[in-house]
Amino acid sequence: MLDQLWIFPILGAIAGVLAGLLGVGGGLILVGALVWLLPLHGIGPDAAMHAALASSMASIVLTAASSAYAHHRRGSVLWPTVAWMAPGLLLGGWLGSGLAVALDGVVLKWGVIGYCLLAAAQMTFGRVRAGGGDAAPAGVGMSVAGTGIGAVSALVGIGGGSMTVPLLVWRGVAAVRAVGTSSACGVVIGIASAAGYALNAPAGALPEHAIGYVYLPAAIGVAVTSVLCAPLGSKLAHAIGGPALKRVFAVFLVVVAGSLLLQ
Questions:
Q1: What SS3 state is found at 133?
Q2: Measuring CA to CA, which residue among 136, 58, 139 is closest to residue 93?
């Protein structure tokens, strides 16, 4: 088992670049890969989906933090918006992870498959009005939106970027600032969701090296390299255009959905 741990840092590098580049944290790709890999580490099929989601959320905390810091240094995080969304994100992340713990792994898998396909379609065909303003969206509506984003994110193992970024751009925020703000929101989602998966899991949910459903070798292995690679993604986000990259990522999402269907 120890000779297989090298794969987690590789996954983390990919997730880190995607976190900084698109504000999505690579969570869906992580979940798709972990569902295949965790059974090799002694985690039974019945718990593999829960563990993949939980470990993805735990790693997203540091991944998103690194990405958010890199974007903050470039002035691309709208902290007032983060402050308004944070209460809803915390509540939604906790409730979503609690619901996920109660659901069967097969149900969760189909939920992730459906979300992958919807996110891929949105990235490929979705249209949003051009953003470019400096105003930070605020108000109770953002808190309510945060609750929904947090809950869905916890259920499918992501940092919420595929929902937060389109929402902010629709509200008139420049795309690069939407990505930076989404990264900061991902930290909040990750903390609440990982805590829910860790504390609400049944006793002995995983055989060893775990807290609840969070498999520590995977979460830590991914986080170590994702923290280092997120600034690279942030730099790329400021240097190149996004439409073509989003279409490439949409292809990845379809591949993830297909891999889960075959699992």
A1: strand
A2: 58
The β-bridge relationship of strands 214-215 and 210-211 is antiparallel
pLDDT band (50, 70, 90) for residue 238: low
pTM: 0.83
Helical spans, DSSP H, in 2-104: 7-22, 27-37, 45-73, 79-102
Longest dimension (CA), the chain: 50
| Residue 74 near residue 234, CB atoms below 8 Å | yes
Residue 22 Ramachandran class (φ > 0 left, ψ -120 to 50 alpha, else beta):
alpha
Place of tokens 């916890």: 154
In terms of Cα–Cα distance, which of 133, 172, 137, 167 is closest to 149?
167
> Cα(80)–Cα(124) distance, rounded to whole angstroms?
30
Q: Radius of gyration (Cα) for the chain, nearest Å?
A: 17
- DSSP states along 215-226: EHHHHHHHHHHH
Among all chains, which residue has been given the structure tokens 């949409």? 250
> Can you give the pLDDT at residue 55?
92
Helix/strand/coil for 4: helix
Distance in angstroms (rounded) separating the CA atoms of residues 169 and 167: 6
**What digits encode the pLDDT tens for the residues 42-51?**
888 888 899 9
* Amino acid 244: pLDDT: 62
Question: Could you give phi then psi for residue 139, rounded to 5 degrees?
Answer: 115, 170
* Sequence spans of domains, the chain: 2-262
pLDDT computed for residue 24 by the predictor: 58
End-to-end CA gap in the chain: 20
| pLDDT tens digits, one per residue of 77-117 | 999 999 999 999 999 999 999 999 999 888 988 988 888 88
